[in-house]
Amino acid sequence: MTGAEIFAALQQQIVPGAGAAEVSRGILVFRLAPDELLPTARRLRDEFAFDLFIDVTAIDWLGQTPRFEVVHHFYSTTHKVRVRLKTRVGEADPTVDSLEPLYGSAAFMERECHDMYGIGFRGNGDLRPILLYEGFVGHPLRKDYPKQREQPLVPYRN
User: CB–CB of 62/41 below 8 Å?
Assistant: First the structure.
């Protein structure tokens, strides 16, 4: 199947249940409700051969409701096609389902997103800091994080 054929099949079979889809910079983008994320990712893996989970990140849309957009990127090594899943979550409970049961590598990527944005991943049992140190207060990629803020210093060993 060509990339165009995969896009057409995905739009036909996933969009009715998942919501809006568009092509952006050659990547098919689905906008999902948070509860549709895990089932859609499972279908991408099982039915459409999206065997590589590339990344998860977030966008802080400060002032909008819901505030955060969680963005997942996938790749099919069979079809040589990328897909992006986007879902919005609110500031009061910025939590989505973990993709760790589907893609083991998601465990570490979700920890990074949790560190930087404070997004929770339901089902990921290890959201300890991976980029920041224990005791770091806040989430530095949130738009309301004060850039002049000083953190407690970690004592260096000589």
Answer: no
